[in-house]
Every structure is written in C-alpha cells, then in structure tokens.
Amino acid sequence: MAKKGHFLLGVLVGGAAAIGATLMLTPKTGKELQSKLVDLGDDLMDRAQDYYYLASETAADLKDDAKQHMNRVHDYASDWQDNASDIKEQAKAQFDEKTADLKSQFGDGLEVGQEDFDDIVIDGKSAFGQAKDEAVTAASETVQKVTTEDE
C-alpha cells in the first residue's frame, strides 16, 4: 500500500513538474502563465484531497469490517464455551445420578478410604505368573481327561 502511495505521489509531482516546465517554456504572457499555474495547483490540491478522502473512507470501511468479523468470532467462541459448559454440567449431573443409584443398590459400604488399601499389595508379575501356571495345569489336566476318554 505504501509503495502505491509513493508511486502515486511521484506521478503527481512529476506530472506537475512536466506541466510547469511546458507552460514556462511556451510563449505566453506572465498573467496567463500565473493563472494557468494557479489553476493547475488548485486541480492538484483537489485531486490530492479526493485521494485522501477515498483512502480515509476505505480505511474506515476496512476497520468496520474487521470489527464485525471479530465480533462474530467472539460470539462463536462464547457460544461454544457456553455449550461446552452445559455439556460438562449435564455429564456431571448424570454421573452423580448414576453414582447415587449405585449407592442405593449396594448400600453405603462402597465408601472406601485410603486406609482400606494399605494391607493389599499385589505384585503384577507374580499374579500373572500364578494365573499362567494355573491355566497350564488346567489345560494339561483337560488334555489328559480327553485322551483317557478317547482310549
């Protein structure tokens, strides 16, 4: 945008210089020359004001458009946040309701404190090893029963 403005200013100044040089080099009386230069200056001033007003209006329009888009984005974000909060509250209410149902079915014995878990320690590797051993024993017993029944 700035490059276009500099280019436009260069064209205007160059054009004014060219017209001024042409008017000065052509044979005219001093009063005619002065009147043409004043008219030319007025025309250039009017054009410059027109471009200034056009640029100001365009900038104001762009600013208004940006504000509208930002307001729309803000509204979408607020709506999304409200919806997320509503969903969270509904999920919490459903969770609390289901928990209350389970408590009513199984009694208040479900309340377990941390101290209830202190004496229970399970080593995962040994527990799975024991389960594997039991499965192998059961499988071999089943194979023996099947083979004895087939004989």
Short overview:
The protein has 151 residues and is mainly α. It is built from three helices and no strands.
Mean pLDDT: 80
In percent, how helical is the residue content?
over 70%
Extended strand count:
0
The separation of the N and C termini measures: 98 Å
Tally of helical runs: 3
Radius of gyration: 45 Å
Q: List segments where confidence is low: pLDDT < 50 over at least 5 consecutive residues.
A: none
List the helices and strands in order.
Answer: HHH
What can be said about the biggest beta sheet? none
Tell me the β content.
Answer: under 5%
**Class by SSE composition:** mainly alpha
| Shape designation | rod-shaped
Question: What this model shows, in words?
Answer:
The chain is an all-alpha fold and 151 residues long. Helices cover 85% and strands 0% of the residues. It contains three helices and no strands. It is rod-shaped. It starts with a helix and ends with a helix.
Break the fold down into its secondary structure elements and pairings:
Elements: H1 2-25, H2 30-106, H3 124-150
Helix pairs in contact: 1-2
Keywords summarizing the entry:
151 residues; 85% helix; mainly alpha
